[in-house]
């Protein structure tokens, strides 16, 4: 029997002891915490004292926080240091947590206690954040099926449990399929065209496996290097096919096939939405978003399609003509697009990513990022030594206010490696929470998958990588700069999902501005700032193929939303059929019939963006408009930075996002700034 003292997940430490956490700790810790949680709820409900915010909501926040603090490091390790044993332990514990949470969401006595707080005489005198938290709790009870009668109540809980399991399996299948494919190349002619930075990544992958030469994998740095630069068209086609058929019936003999999971996830989400009174999953999802109806979302997306598609058609026509004339590619295929685009960009703007990379060594970029937030927000960053981490690449930083007082912290883990989920994300380690005798500080996880350093060079980022880093750090700042003392509405918690991307996309803008780049960009050998000529070429190329980029995002958004809005149990998901319909409406270049993009679309099937992928574009409207104030009043204007921090970052989910935007901008948002940034006529 695991004792509390010997299980690191049961320790009340400020930071997790990652080196001590083992798979065998997970289930006993969660069992203990859930038992204590239930005992706490039972005691709350048994108490005869009048219901108050403190003895109902406060108690629930403390109980929930203890569970979150144990589960957060487990979930993080599942994403960055995966193993079979951890998977098994994670799955068993997750099943128990979901079952517990589902039952809690349907606890009518607890619902009545929260309702009593809401209806009590003291409610009006509570701080605004506290009132919002109570209202969110009541809403979430309804969405969890508190009003349902049997057998619907039990069925709702069964669905929640199965959905959690399927989402985890979906993500694990994508990771396994990504790790399963590789191509070993021993002849340098096979990687002709790939620049040295890309070759170094492929060489490192080979060395990791004890091989000579180069190893092409499906990790993002490898895929990017091949599809953008490899002269060997057949190699590009093989990598494109392998990447585009991951976790489908068209790869690995169907071993990791997500087809049945997609079908089941969509069917269960639909059934769950119907149970709690919505016509579709999409409609249910909008209960916690800024957008008010499915029709509004679809109209929003199609309005952008009408503006973007002519631009995309022009982009593609230009690319096809260039490929035919200069690259002798008469039949441009999807696996040629990245390669031809890179060559065209070089020809039009005398600019390629490889020319920029030496100016973006990761250590300098990190220093520059920290300098940007210091200038804009008055926040200092300091590396803390000796922190227990899960991998030698991980680091921990403190966030300091103007007086040097630590008020938040964050971990970073930035390099791609085997056993680590692809992509980039911010996740919560701990939330800001006022306790009886202390203030728990917010701590974030910031994870990316950049090319690691080699024996001779630091990690050299593309400018797109820099944008990604600033994006995720924007999420981190939203979490860490909160001044709300209730975990349920502090940081990103309680923020409408289609506004969550506002602070992240906002931060991206600094990586385009001369003022920002002067802090970020330093040549890794000479220390030289980004030359003016190169900066001007970057700016000239900023909207290069923006039409193609936009229609790609619109395809994702419209596909996701329609998939969840139009699901019919009689017909099934019709995933590929619907994708084909969306592509005929939106896309200008059709992928091959065998392509299986949905099977690795973890955002919507495992990442919380189901019926919500449109949020990226929705929030980009807000972020472009918000940043325009900085452009008008000064990119590093500390007063404007303070206003942004106070109006948006500090309040978290304690009020509607629209109110926060208006508080900063003085008016409701307009899409004009975003359209201008893409070179689209309003």
Strand order of the largest sheet: 3-4-5-9-6
CATH top-level class of the largest domain = Mainly Alpha
Structural class, judged by helices and strands? alpha+beta
For the record, the CATH architecture of the largest domain stands as Orthogonal Bundle
Structure report:
With 682 residues, the protein is α+β, with helices and mostly antiparallel strands. It folds into 4 domains: 8-159, Orthogonal Bundle (Neurolysin, domain 3), CATH 1.10.1370.40; 181-254, no CATH class; 259-351 and 545-613, Neurolysin, domain 3 (Orthogonal Bundle); 357-540, Neurolysin, domain 3 (Orthogonal Bundle), CATH 1.10.1370.40. The chain is 56% helix and 7% strand. It has 26 helices and 9 strands. Strands 3-4-5-9-6 form a 5-stranded mixed β-sheet. Helix 1 (23-46) packs antiparallel against helix 2 (53-80) and helix 8 (220-229) crosses helix 13 (334-349). The longest helix has 33 residues, at 294-326. It starts with 22 loop residues before the first helix and ends in a 5-residue tail after the last helix. The mean pLDDT is 96.
List keywords for this structure.
682 residues; alpha+beta; Neurolysin, domain 3; 4 domains; 5-stranded mixed β-sheet; two-stranded antiparallel ribbon
List the helices and strands and how they pair.
Elements lengths: L22 H24 L6 H28 L3 H22 L2 H12 L8 H16 L8 H29 L1 E4 L10 H13 L5 E4 L2 H10 L3 H12 L14 H17 L5 H5 L8 H33 L7 H16 L3 H4 L5 H16 L2 E4 L11 E6 L5 E10 L9 E6 L2 E2 L4 E2 L2 E8 L12 H18 L21 H7 L5 H7 L11 H9 L5 H20 L9 H12 L15 H4 L9 H19 L4 H12 L7 H9 L6 H6 L5
Parallel strand pairs: 5-9
Antiparallel strand pairs: 1-2, 3-4, 4-5, 6-9, 7-8
């Amino acid at each position: 029997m695991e004792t509390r003292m010997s299980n690191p997940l049961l320790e009340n430490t400020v930071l997790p002891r990652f080196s001590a956490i083992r798979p065998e700790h997970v289930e006993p810790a969660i069992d203990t915490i859930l038992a204590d949680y239930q005992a706490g709820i039972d005691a709350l409900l048994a108490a005869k004292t009048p219901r108050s915010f403190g003895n109902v909501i406060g108690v629930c926040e403390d109980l929930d926080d203890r569970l979150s603090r144990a589960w957060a490091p487990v979930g993080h390790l599942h994403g960055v240091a995966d193993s079979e044993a951890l998977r098994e332990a994670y799955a068993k514990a997750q099943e128990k947590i979901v079952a517990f949470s589902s039952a809690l969401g349907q606890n009518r006595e607890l619902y009545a206690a929260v309702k009593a707080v809401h209806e009590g005489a003291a409610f009006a005198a509570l701080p605004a954040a506290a009132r919002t938290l109570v209202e969110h709790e009541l809403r979430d009870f309804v969405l969890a099926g508190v009003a349902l009668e049997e057998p619907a109540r039990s069925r709702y809980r069964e669905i929640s449990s199965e959905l959690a399991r399927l989402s985890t399996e979906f993500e694990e299948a994508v990771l396994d399929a990504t790790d399963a494919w590789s191509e070993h190349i021993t002849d340098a002619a096979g990687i002709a065209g790939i620049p040295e930075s890309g070759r170094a990544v492929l060489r490192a992958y080979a060395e990791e496996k004890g091989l000579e030469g180069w190893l092409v994998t499906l990790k993002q740095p490898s895929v990017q290097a091949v599809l953008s630069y490899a002269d060997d068209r057949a190699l590009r086609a093989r990598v494109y096919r392998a990447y585009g058929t991951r976790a489908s019936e068209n790869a690995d003999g169907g071993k990791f096939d997500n087809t049945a999971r997609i079908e089941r996830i969509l069917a269960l989400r639909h059934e769950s939405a119907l149970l709690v009174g919505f016509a579709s999953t999409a409609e249910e999802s909008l209960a916690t978003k800024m957008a008010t109806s499915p029709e509004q979302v679809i109209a929003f997306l199609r309005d952008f399609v009408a503006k973007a598609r002519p631009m995309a058609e022009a982009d593609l026509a230009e690319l096809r003509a260039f490929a035919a004339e200069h690259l002798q590619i008469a039949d441009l295929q999807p696996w040629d697009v990245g390669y031809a685009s890179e060559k065209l960009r070089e020809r039009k703007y005398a600019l390629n990513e490889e020319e920029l990379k030496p100016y973006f060594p990761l250590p300098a970029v990190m220093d520059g990022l920290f300098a940007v937030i210091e200038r804009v927000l008055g926040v200092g960053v300091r590396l803390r030594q000796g922190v227990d981490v899960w991998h030698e690449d991980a680091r921990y930083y403190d966030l300091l206010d103007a007086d040097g007082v630590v008020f938040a912290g964050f971990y970073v883990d930035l390099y791609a490696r085997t056993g680590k989920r692809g992509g980039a994300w911010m996740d919560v380690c701990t939330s800001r929470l006022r306790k009886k005798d202390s203030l728990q500080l917010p701590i974030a996880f910031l994870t990316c998958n950049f090319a690691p350093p080699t024996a001779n060079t630091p990690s050299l980022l593309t400018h797109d990588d820099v944008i990604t880093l600033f994006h995720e750090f924007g999420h981190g700042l939203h979490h860490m700069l909160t001044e709300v003392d209730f975990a349920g509405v502090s940081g990103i918690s309680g923020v409408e999902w289609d506004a969550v991307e506002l602070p992240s996309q906002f931060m991206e803008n600094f990586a385009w501005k001369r003022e920002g780049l002067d802090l970020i960009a330093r040549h890794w050998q000479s220390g030289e700032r980004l030359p003016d000529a190169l900066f001007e070429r970057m700016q000239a190329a900023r909207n290069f193929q923006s039409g193609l980029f936009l229609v790609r995002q619109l395809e994702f958004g419209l596909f996701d939303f329609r998939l969840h809005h139009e699901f019919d149990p009689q017909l099934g998901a019709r995933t590929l059929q619907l994708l084909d319909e969306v592509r005929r409406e939106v896309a200008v270049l059709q992928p091959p019939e065998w392509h299986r993009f949905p099977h690795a679309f973890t955002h919507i099937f495992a990442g919380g963006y189901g019926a919500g992928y449109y949020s990226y574009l929705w929030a980009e409207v807000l972020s472009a408009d918000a940043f325009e104030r900085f452009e008008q009043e000064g990119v590093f204007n500390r007063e404007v930075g303070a206003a942004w921090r106070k109006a948006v970052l500090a309040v978290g989910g304690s009020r509607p996002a629209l109110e926060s935007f208006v508080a900063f901008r003085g008016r409701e948002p307009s899409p004009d700034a975003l359209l201008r940034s893409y070179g689209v006529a309003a």
